[in-house]
């Protein structure tokens, strides 16, 4: 009989299409990497005082196929040596209740040069935007990406000018806080499908 064979062939075609679609989703999701423990620190070196703060709860997502990435961090997650510094940072300078996150979005411009199946360190050029204190500014920097097994480790440093982000430093403490801060960012990213 022809009818059962036609039904059987249609079922096989549907099954093949289903397997292919699952495979394509797996392949495309295998190109996305993430970390929930991105490390960011900043350093302010002023004549009267050096201030350092660390946050180990940055969330990073990288699309290894396109080079697009996003990095976000809660402002209240920054920790200081002195509790009073942390309080001033959150209440007076970054106003973390109004602006709870710092976000960076951008692209690794030379992502095509990175081979995810070869353990190696690559110098990459990054272009994007950083939003801090409700102000978004463009940025460019050079970073290092190290591929080792299934992990991509990222590291970069750059400087930010505090005034560019609408952060005002009272004249009383101006000698204690630099007008520029050095920012270091690092993260170990794993494939999303693991």
Task: Describe this entry's structure for a reader.
With about 190 residues, this protein is an alpha+beta fold. The chain folds into 2 domains: about 1-30; about 30-190, Lipocalin. Helix content is about 20%, strand content about 50%. It has 2 helices and 8 strands, in the order αβββαβββββ. It has helices spanning about 1-30, 85-95, and strands at about 30-45, 50-65, 70-75, 100-110, 120-130, 135-150, 150-160, 180-190. It has an 8-stranded antiparallel barrel. β1 and β2 (about 50-65) form a beta hairpin. The longest helix is centred in the N-terminal third of the chain and has 28 residues, at about 1-30. The radius of gyration is 23 Å and the shape is elongated.
Brief characterization of the structure:
This protein has 194 residues and is an alpha+beta fold. The chain is built from 2 helices and 8 strands; from the N terminus they run αβββαβββββ. It has an 8-stranded antiparallel β-barrel.
Order of helices and strands: HEEEHEEEEE
Query: Which architecture of the largest domain would the CATH scheme give at its second level?
Result: Beta Barrel
Assigned CATH superfamily of the largest domain? Lipid/polyisoprenoid-binding, YceI-like
Counted by DSSP, the helix tally is 2
- Rounded mean pLDDT is 85
Strand content: over 45%
Q: In the CATH hierarchy, what is the class of the largest domain?
A: Mainly Beta
Instruction: Please identify the structural class as seen in this structure.
Output: alpha+beta
The end-to-end span amounts to 47 Å
Biggest sheet features: 8 strands, antiparallel, barrel
- The level of helicity is 10-25%
- Principal-axes geometry comes out as elongated
In total, how many beta strands? 8
**Low-confidence segments:** 14-30
Number of domains: 2
CATH fold-level topology of the largest domain = Lipocalin
| Alpha-carbon Rg, integer | 23 Å
Strand order of the largest sheet: 1-2-3-4-5-6-7-8
